[in-house]
Design a protein that fits this description.
Elements (H helix, E strand, L loop, with lengths): L2 E4 L2 E4 H7 L10 H11 L11 H7 L4 H15 L3 H31 L3
Antiparallel strand pairs: 1-2
Helix pairs in contact: 3-5, 4-5
Length: 114
Amino acid sequence: MNKIKQGNNILETPDLEAAIEDYSQGGLTSDQAKAKLEQFGGNSFIIEKTKGWKSFCKQFINPFSFILIFASTLSAYMGEYTDTIVIMSIVLLNSCLSFVQEFRSGKAAKNSPS
């Protein structure tokens, strides 16, 4: 018999089938849909509006950037300024690409039908 974990509960297959109704054939009735809407709320999400420069600065706060910035600092300390410039260029390019991707996805989410 199959067991499925749901939160802190483990449901066996017959219990699971009893716990959730099968709507695959006819779907929800209007009353069932209204009850689910009242119980769980609508399918919506909140879009937080942030300033562009804050979003850009947040791109530097990740382990990849920290490692590269440390490597760049170490290269500068050792006098390898060419390596320092290359590494910092990679950090900047990574942050710019991440910012553009986040901006476009935010724009797409804003324009999507609710």
